[in-house]
Amino acid sequence: MNTDEILKEITRGAVDVVSREDLAKKLSSGKRLRVKFGADPSSPDLHIGHSVTMSKLRKFQDLGHTAVLIIGDFTAQIGDPSGKDVTRPVLDHETVARNAKTYTEQAYKILDPDKTEIRFNSEWLKPFFASPAAGVSDFINIAKSVTISQLLEREDFRARMKAETPISLLEILYPIFQGYDSVAVKADIELGGQDQIFNLLMGRDLQKLSGQEPQAIMTMPLLVGTDGERKMSKSLGNYIGLNDHPNDMFGKVMSVSDALMYDYYELLTSEDAAAVKANHPMAAKKKLAGLITARYHGPEQAAAALAHFEQVFSRKELPEDMQVFRAEKPGKLSYLLVSAGLAGGMNEARRLITQGAVRLDGEKVAEDMVFEPRNCVLQVGRRQFRKIEK
Length: 390
What we know:
Shape: globular
CATH superfamily of the largest domain: HUPs
Largest sheet: 6 strands, mixed
Distance between the termini: 64 Å
CATH class of the largest domain: Alpha Beta
CATH topology of the largest domain: Rossmann fold
C-alpha cells in the first residue's frame, strides 16, 4: 500500500488525528516508528473496550512498527481524572503490581510479542521523588513550563469546579506525568481513547520542550458497555473481559442491543457494516459473538460457545457441562454465591440477589436466605450456572 492507502486504513474509525499531516509524514519516512499506548493497571483485567485502541496498535505492528506499551504502575497510584466527576480512590503498590502482571499477560492476546516493548512508567517517574531526588530538577523544569490555567482547561476539571467537587493536586499533575511518558520513550505516535486527548496533547507539548519531534496523536471512540449507556468499565459491571470464559464472552455479546451491535462491528471487527446490516439482526449478532470469542479463544471454543448459547437460551435447556460445587453446611445464600465463584464478594452477591439475578432450580430468589444443602442448580444472570451437591 502507498502512504495514502495506509493512512486511510490506519485512521479508520478514529475520532482525533493530530495532525494528519504529521502522521502522513511519519508513515512515509521509512523509519520504524515507536507507537505508544498507555494503560493504568487500576483493575486486574483488560476488556474489549481496551482492545479498540490496542487493535489499532497491532495494525501499526503489522506495518513493521514497534508498539511501546506503557504500564502505568506509577500513575495508577494517582488516578487518571479523565471523565471522572469525583476523585478516584488511591491504589496501594501491591494491588497495582498484581494488576500490572495480568495486563502484560493479556496484552499478548492482541499484540505481537516480538514487536512489543513493555515499559513501566515508575522507571522514569519514581526518580522524580526519590531520595536523593536526582530527577527533581528535571521535574521542576517541566512543571514550570505548564500553567495552571492550561491544566484547568480540561472539561472534566471545569465541570467539577462548577459543581464544587474537590480536585486533588495529584490529579492536576496527572497529565504532566502521562505526557512525560512520551518524552521518556521518545514516542513517534501515541494512541488513546477519545477521553485522553488532553493528556496526549500534553505529551506533544513536553516533547517540544525537551527538544524532541512532537508525536502524532490518534484517538479512538470509547466502547459503550453492555448496558448500552455508559463507557465499558469493570467497576460498572458492563464489561466483556479478555479473560472471560468463552460461554460468558459469547453470551455477553449476545446481550447487547441491536443498535449497539453495529457499533461493535465497526470498532471491534473489519467486517463491512453495509453487508452486516443486510443480515437478520439475530444472525448478525451470533456472527459478531463468534468473531469476538474466536479472536480470544479460538474457533473451536467459539463454536462450542454458540452451541452452549443455543442450548441454554434458544431451547431453554440447562447446560450439560455445569461446574459442580459441594455445599457441606447451611449458610447464607450470598456466602454460597461467593464460595461457588458466582460473585466476587459478599457485597456483589447481596446486590445480585436484590436485583433478582439469582435463581435456584429456575425460581428467582427474593432475599438473602439461609441455604440448606441440597442437590439443585444455582444460576446467576443468564449465563452462569453451578450444580450444587450436598
